[in-house]
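[Automated response] Your request has been received and processed.

Submitted sequence:
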Amino acid sequence: MRRAAWAVVLVTLAALTGCSGADEDRAGAPRWQPRPGLAWQWQLDGPVDPSVDVPVYDIDGFENSAADVARLHRDGRKVICYVNVGAWEDFRPDRADFPASVLGRPNGWRGERWLDIRRVSVLRPLMERRFDMCRDKGFDAVEPDLVEGYGNDTGFPLTARDQLGYNRMIADLAHRRGLSVGLKNDLPQIPALVRHFDFAVNEECAQYDECGELKPFIAAGKAVFHVEYAEPAAAFCPDSRRLELSSMRKKPELGVWRAPC
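Generated structure:
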């Protein structure tokens, strides 16, 4: 097939699936590019419930199997792999692979401690294996959590520069595996990171009057998957629709229940 004809095929597929043919992994296959306004489900608690009629699911990478991902794919969903990249978790099967020297202070969640993201030589292979898991289970994308340790009391003297370097590495690890990757929160660094990430995931920008800081993603044609926990839908949905955010209200445990805009 000639190059021009193949380009037409890619554009057609992109229109049908919400992908952009502009971003490719090293094998040349187009990565999924979620567009602004896509509805989504975020379920990290309990067995995944595939009955929610939305095109995007964000679920725990460890707790769900390749069969779970395949079922969602059969229903026409794209599936995001939730993985913690900024904190150690004592309930994960690879917990013993993290040396004590990279474990910092508790982060407020039971069984979790901040990681020393300056120790890239230690953390990179661990995150590579986690992203390999996401790829091998058939996920389309990764949601790397806790990528703003520099703004927290981690027990390490982390700087914004440390965080930028680590976050860019995380994005590169995903892209090398053909996975799209989302920037989780970390609003101050959006201008420096928006070109490295394929979408954003945000918690409570409306409650803290910060949703405007996510505009660079929307302007770039990249989805912003957004949740509020305390704000009533009537208080944030009008602005969310105006900004083209993919917004819903969830309970903090992130079970099945959702109240979309």
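Summary generated for your ticket: Residues 9 and 259 are 37 Å apart (CA to CA). Confidence is low (pLDDT under 50) at residues 1-26.
If you did not submit this request, please reply to this message.
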